[in-house]
């Protein structure tokens, strides 16, 4: 009996060591590559409502800058009919996202790739929660590649000189001059 207790204790210690190493790798990687911009559950539910409202028949969804895949996994749970492509330039983040996807048994296409080299011609929906300095480059890419009628949703950061079809504030506790957790909906003309 005591032998099994030692084995169990050993296994727990091994799992804790693995968790610590993974946490360390994720923290170091985030410091080097920039930290993540996680989408809240509240914003995720609002995003799902936007998709149902503007593109209920959508088939292909791109999550640009998907990080650890949390948003993609939540959207897949809320809208299982979507084929989701989650793109991030970090092998660590994509590996972690793939692991979570397998554990949760949600089929998502996680891909380690530069979002500016990703072909978006077949997208019905594009979501981005990126730094402001990336938005002008993304705007040019979307104008060039997306089909008419594609729905683009951005979180907090938005496109200058593009008039959103709708602006949804998901976090009302922040000052009215701040766009934190505000979703901007655009429809490609």
* Number of DSSP E strands: 7
* Reported CATH architecture of the largest domain: 3-Layer(aba) Sandwich
CATH superfamily of the largest domain: Vaccinia Virus protein VP39
Could you tell me the CATH topology label of the largest domain: Rossmann fold
Question: What structural class do the secondary elements suggest?
Answer: alpha/beta
What is the total number of structural domains? 2
Percent helix range: 40-55%
How does the overall form come out from the CA principal axes?
Answer: elongated
Largest sheet: 7 strands, mixed
By CATH reckoning, the class of the largest domain would read Alpha Beta
Nearest-integer average pLDDT: 90
Strand order of the largest sheet: 3-2-1-4-5-7-6
Taking all Cα atoms into account, the compactness measure Rg is: 19 Å
Give a short synopsis of this structure.
A 7-stranded mixed sheet has the order 3-2-1-4-5-7-6, with helices on one face. By secondary structure, it is an alpha/beta fold.
List the helices and strands and how they pair.
Layout: H1 2-33, H2 41-54, E1 60-64, H3 70-78, E2 83-88, H4 91-104, E3 109-112, E4 125-128, H5 135-145, E5 151-155, E6 166-169, E7 182-187
Parallel strand pairs: 1-2, 1-4, 2-3, 4-5
Antiparallel strand pairs: 5-7, 6-7
Helix pairs in contact: 2-3
Write structural notes for this entry.
Helices cover 42% and strands 18% of the residues. Strands 3-2-1-4-5-7-6 form a seven-stranded mixed beta sheet, with helices on one face. 30% of the residues are buried. The protein has two domains: 1-33; 41-187, Rossmann fold, CATH 3.40.50. The chain is elongated, with a radius of gyration of 19 Å. It has 189 residues and is of the alpha/beta class. The model has no long low-confidence stretch (mean pLDDT 90).
């Amino acid at each position: 009996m005591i032998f099994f207790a030692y084995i169990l204790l050993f296994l727990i210690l091994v799992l804790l060591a693995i968790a610590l190493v993974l946490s360390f790798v994720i923290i170091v990687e985030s410091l080097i590559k920039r930290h993540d911009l996680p989408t809240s559950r509240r914003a995720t539910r609002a995003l799902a409502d936007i998709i149902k409202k503007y593109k209920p028949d959508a088939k292909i969804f791109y999550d640009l800058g998907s990080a650890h895949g949390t948003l993609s996994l939540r959207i897949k749970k809320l809208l299982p009919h979507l084929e989701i492509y989650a793109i991030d330039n970090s092998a660590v983040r994509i590996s972690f996202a793939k692991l979570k996807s397998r554990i949760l048994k949600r089929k998502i296409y996680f891909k380690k790739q530069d979002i500016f080299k990703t072909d978006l011609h077949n997208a019905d929906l594009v979501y981005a929660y990126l730094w402001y300095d990336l938005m002008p480059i993304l705007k040019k890419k979307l104008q060039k590649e997306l089909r008419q009628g594609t729905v683009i949703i951005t979180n907090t950061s938005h496109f200058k000189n593009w008039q959103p079809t709708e602006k949804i504030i998901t976090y009302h506790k922040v000052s009215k001059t701040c766009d934190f957790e505000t979703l901007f909906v655009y429809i490609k003309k």
